[in-house]
Amino acid sequence: MVCHFGQPSLFITFTANPKWVEIEKELLPNQSAAHRPDLVARVFNLKVHDLLDQIRHKEVFGPWLVWVWTIEYQKRGLPHLHLLVFRRTDNQFLTADNIDRFISAELPAADDAVGQELRGIIETTMVHTHCVAHNGSALCMQGLDPFSVQTCHKRYPRPFHPETIIHEDGYPTYRRRDTGQGYTLSVRRGGEDISAIIDNRRVVPYSPYLSLRYKAHINVEVCGSVKAVKYIHKYI
After folding, report:
1. 26 and 77 share one domain
2. Mean pLDDT lowest for which of 6-15, 40-49, 77-86, 129-138?
3. Distance of alpha carbon 93 from its chain centroid, rounded?
4. By Cβ atoms counted within 10 A, which residue in 92, 151, 163, 214 is the most buried?
5. Which domain holds residue 194?
């Protein structure tokens, strides 16, 4: 695939949201989304087809070339899509200014109604909070030695960066400015409530347009390596 089409441009992970109105309005009394995997899968399938239409025909990321995807169900979890998008790229695609047009790793400003809606979506779906307040039991924490310092294997919180930087391997370090934007999250640790400050260091990269449209976890990142192709095919 890579020999024929070149390296993929974007890696998108799209996870179903059990709070979608299309799901909640069809649930019977005392049911939750976990009781209706058929309903969740059907709604998710419709959202996926709409996403593919946005990428191919609406060209929200520019001229489309080809794609490959796999959908993972994890038996007990929500279905999610791993999608590799190959664009008709040129030298202007992998530039900091161009990446900032499509992808953000910062909390949006809530200056108007649209900004307030996007801010709520990002805070609830696109912020990595599992390991807040040094939660050693979180799945993202590593380090089996109880005397060693555990760190998040997803590398959150990330350091602040005033601008996007493109590295030699094609993977960028996204802009995460220290803007003072943040909010307080209350977590329970050791039998007591702890207040943690959530800021841009814990934001998962996203597309503002897609997040507003689908109101779900939809991680969008620049892909600069053939490893992503191998990763997506291990499920198949």
Report:
1. yes
2. 129-138
3. 20
4. 214
5. 127-203
